[in-house]
Amino acid sequence: MSLSLIRTVLLTAFSFCLAARSLSTSVYLQAQAKSKKTLAKSGVKNVVLVDGVRTPFLLSGTTYADLMPHDLARAALQGLLKRTGLPKDAVDYIVYGTVIQEVKTSNVAREAALGAGFSDKTPAHTVTMACISSNQAMTTAVGLIAAGQCDAVVAGGVEFMSDVPIRHSRKMRKTMLSLNKAKTLGARLSLLGSIRLAHLSPELPAVAEFSTAETMGHSADRLAAAFGVSRLEQDEFALRSHKLAKKAQDSELLSDVISFKVPGRDIVSKDNGIRPATMEQMAKLKPAFIKPHGTVTAANSSFLTDGASAVLIMSEEKALAMGYKPKAYLRDFVYVSQDPKDQLLLGPTYATPKVLEKSGLTLNDIDVFEFHEAFAGQIMANLKAMESDWFGQTYMGRKTKVGAPPMEKFNTWGGSLSLGHPFAATGCRLVTTVAHRLQKEGGQYGLVAACAAGGQGHAMVIEAYPQ
Predict the structure, then answer these.
(1) Can you tell which superkingdom this protein's organism belongs to (predicted)?
(2) Where are the domains of the chain?
């Protein structure tokens, strides 16, 4: 046998061995990947998140100031259509969340959908559940699909704090309604003569609990005090949020943000509330709610924000039939509620163990956590409550503590403190971020949790779609 022939035989054998080894390794890795259980349930439709977008979240009173809520919602819907290439007539239903409603467009879902060019034959309705309004919109979509009513639903949320409804006083409204019904000039003059200067005082909207008359910031301050959360801890967490958001923005990880040409203004393509400061600068701010000894300040609270979000949710079967590669499965979810005075913002603590038990998972199974950051004090109080055996036993009927998420998995692309918090739009941002982080980090399970006014809360488990 010639030397060249021997060399060829040896090279062929070596290549075969490498290929066999590579195939063996590949099969082994696939087996490893498949060894982690899926949350698919027999006889239950798989519901998937195909994609999600949002307008840039902007500080209220800035570039969006002259718009209306349905303008932002329309922009988000159009951005979703463009991102997904979705035929408008393929959508069976549209659900949108909002908290402070514009009177002229009370069903903002319908007005935004028509403005975005969806068929007038596509039903749309609006839900409200405070800061978890778009969470409610998404789970409504999941329910419609699971029930076999729909195959493709668009869900979202919008909040516009630059222009909120301001009402006349109750006495003035009553007089004006009576004036509208008066049939004689004398009756009208009599009513006009009854108007007093005090009647002209407007009723301004307040982010306060109707049942307790307490602002959410006040509740956050008391909650922080109850759990021994210091001002320093709150400022450190807020700074962490801004730094991580800035890093994510600079690294182009916030891919759900779409560019939006504001009529008569510039094109906006980035959130504008991300502002990493220094601990020294933050320490100079005075308490915002409980003065002079409170610990909640403008720097460690989420700010008033304008913005909208939208997600496309489908049955897996329909998504694949239309050629889509989903981002994630939307799995188990729960809603909770508790005392709106002393436990107003503890929704994540109550919801997290319930949704984990429902899905048969433990805290250690979760690769990505995204919790809504209303206030740094609220987040830190929840984390301390979750780590407290006493709280778990006394208030939750548990034998031991819930356990807090590890910080290396927690809100690593920033959160509401830095990205902004348009009340009804945040839920979709949280879910879309979990899906993107799972893809980026190679995890399988993510968990979203949020508190809301009224002492309510939400949690959902998201499972990565196989890549």
Answers:
(1) Eukaryota
(2) 47-164+302-464
What does pTM read for this prediction?
Answer: 0.90
How far apart CA 421 and CA 303 sit, in angstroms, is 7
pLDDT tens for 335-370 read 999 999 999 999 999 999 999 999 999 999 999 999
Contact 102, 74 (CB under 8 A): no
CB-neighbour burial class of residue 9 (10 A; exposed 0-12, middle 13-18, buried 19+): exposed
User: Can you tell me the distance from the alpha carbon of 377 to that of 221, in angstroms, rounded to the nearest whole number?
Assistant: 7
**Per annotation, catalytic residue among 17, 150, 428, 451:** 451
**Alpha helix positions (H), 168-315:** 170-181, 185-193, 216-226, 231-250, 279-283
CA distance 438 to 257: 18
Catalytic, 428? Answer no
Q: Does domain 47-164+302-464 have CATH number 1.10.287.180?
A: no
CA 80 – CA 102 distance, rounded (Å): 23
In this structure, the strands spanning 47-54 and 368-371 are unpaired
What interhelical angle do 376-386 and 347-359 show, nearest 10? 50
